[in-house]
User: Fold Transporter from Archaeoglobus fulgidus.
Amino acid sequence: MERENWATRAGFVLAAIGSAIGLGNIWRFGYLVYKNGGGAFLIPYFVALFVAGISLMILEFAIGHRFRGSAPASMRKLGGRGFEWIGWWAVTGGLIITMYYTVVIGWAIVYFTKSLTLAWGEDTGGYFFGTVLQLSDNPWDFGGFATEVLIATIIVWALNWLVDFRGIRKGIEKANLLLMPLLWLLAVILVIRAVTLPGAMEGIEWYLKPDFSKLGDYNIWLAAFGQIFFTLSLGMGIMIAYASYLPEKSDIANNAFIVSLANCAFSFLVGFAVFGTLGYMAYATQSDISDVVAQSVGLAFVVFPKALNMLPALKVFTAAVFFLALVVAGLSSSISLVEAVSSALMDKFGMERRKAVNIVVLVGFLGSIVYTTKAGLYWLDVVDHFINYYGLVLVGLLEVIAAAWLFDLTVLKNHINSVSEIKVGMWWDLAVKFATPLILAVLLILDIRGNLTENYGGYPTEVLLTGLSIIVLGMIVAAILSWRDKNVS
Ligand code: TRP
Assistant:
């Protein structure tokens, strides 16, 4: 079977950008900057971007392009049978993330529909946790479904199915050609709306005012590396799969720069919308930014609705634009992961695309169900906490060890330089061989130490262990999949 490929370079680049830009860019980046030294945070952020971000993006593109396969197939060709497992763990870990990520996109769909009437009212916290999520008292009290969330989650999976089912050119490429310009347009609208509000400039000052004294704190550096890794969709086999569909003569290094920089530019841009709006809110309520700022879910579904209520004009329009932006950003990321898993199944079992996508969407949806129950948010929080380290960070570490230490990195480097517009030099070897594995190992060790000394989020131990066992289960599935031997190409 001939491998599908992208019709245009722009199609590939936009799809990779679509994967990278996600919910994290909208609600997490700005908060990280604000909390970790304002403009000064951009220093560790850019160091992380160049050392561990772009260099790994180049590596993942190179692996996919050189071995023309999904993550498991490529890892196998790179290092032999024993390495296929790394690729399976990458995509399985990614699928575990997608199981709850799609539910969050579902919340955004619910809020998009509510924005027409600003249905959340004054008590936005009560509305989110009580009316929409119907959050129960404890993680074991599942209490049935939050019906709207369940329906919206079904819609999200259906959309993923629709796009990936049609394949690279007709599905993923076309979708991103539409979604990416739309997303940037929505972001620009949000920025313009925000910066024209009174108080916006103070908000932006909070966002960017540099506090260089914080740079001495290593936690800030770790936060920067963690965020870069997540935001660029590394360590899930996504970029490997996308690059495997590139025609033979395709640039690698320059594309990796374009994708990574576009992603970070988007984060930076949206920061103005978020903090401009928060600045207005602080101004309107005569409060301090620290009283209104929040991170992740709290920012998007509690604080922002409140700010939207207060806007002097264009409330409904701005609300619809904001939640649509979340939906679009999220969808283009989940689509990429569904493809990464599907292509792994296609490569391994010689499965037809349609069958592979059906299986992935069905399994993914079944996994999502727990997060649509009334205890969903607890489990989302717990699984999210573990998977980022024992999925992405661990996979990234194994990937660089395999490619740079157990395989001859110069083979990949020569491959990159034979096709790329930009040639990678010594800096790349140093980044991939030494800096990245070192930093990822430190991240992992500190996280393990943290988990051993303190219960994350104050959850009871058995809840944390249950969350952890989902991840162990995923690893076992990955091992079984790599063990089976059928249709090796
Ligand atoms: N890059 C995404 C973000 O910043 C996160 C992400 C990476 C992701 N890979 C994914 C989400 C796969 C869903 C599926 O939000």
Q: What stands out?
A: The chain is about 75% helix and 0% strand.
